[in-house]
Every structure is written in structure tokens, then in C-alpha cells.
Amino acid sequence: MARRYRIAVARRPFADLRALPGGRGAGLGRALIEVAAREPPAGLIAVSSRLDLAACEVSVRHRIVLVYAVIGRDELLAGLIGAELDRELRARAIRRVMHGRR
Q: Beta strand pairing status for 6-9 and 52-59?
């Protein structure tokens, strides 16, 4: 049986992982351990728990999983759809004003 991959977490993601509320960092930590225990594919991967996401790179040669970023799913969704939602709300407000409703 091959030994599992080591997990290396950069300083900023480590602080972000510890800052996740309500023990959510432990859930993401378990997900990282599960990925390191099996043979992950080389290159960039996303490791996720129910509520959070970690951006990682796998080095097969060095048998290591490098964690570059940790982000909560709520923050990720706000970043992805927040601007679109904001545009839609502004467009609705403009339509209301143009049609004489406030």
C-alpha cells in the first residue's frame, strides 16, 4: 500500500481555515485528509466539504497536496452571482422609476 500524500497549507489559507465559523474548518480538514489518503490526480483540484471549498495543487512527484486558498461557499456564491444579482436589482429599480412606480 502506498503512503498517503502530505498536506501543506500556506499561511493565509491556514488562517482562513481556522477562521471558519462553527467548526467548519474541521470538516474541510477531514475532506483534505480523505483526498490525501487516496491517489489524487496531478494538477489543480478543488476539495470541498458541505459548506466550504479549498483550492489545491497535487504534486505526484513530491507526493504532496498544496492548499492555496480556502473559501466559504457563501462567500464564493456571493462573488460569483453577487454582481449579477446587483445588476438585476438595479435594473428593476430603474424599470419601476421609468414606469412611474416607486
A: unpaired
Tell me, rounded to whole angstroms, the distance of Cα 47 from its chain centroid: 8
52: phi then psi, degrees, rounded to nearest 5? -140, 165
Cβ-contact 65, 6 below 8 angstroms: yes
**Closest alpha carbon to 52 in 80, 24, 78:** 24
Stated pTM of the model? 0.72
How many angstroms separate the CA atoms of 20 and 25, rounded? 5
Question: pLDDT tens digits, residue range 5-14?
Answer: 999 999 999 9
At residue 93, what is the residue type? A
Residues in the chain, how many?
102
Contacts of 10 (CB under 8 A, 6+ apart): 66, 67, 68
User: Which pLDDT tens digit goes with each residue over 17-41?
Assistant: 888 888 888 899 999 999 999 888 9
Pairing of strands 43-48, 52-59: antiparallel
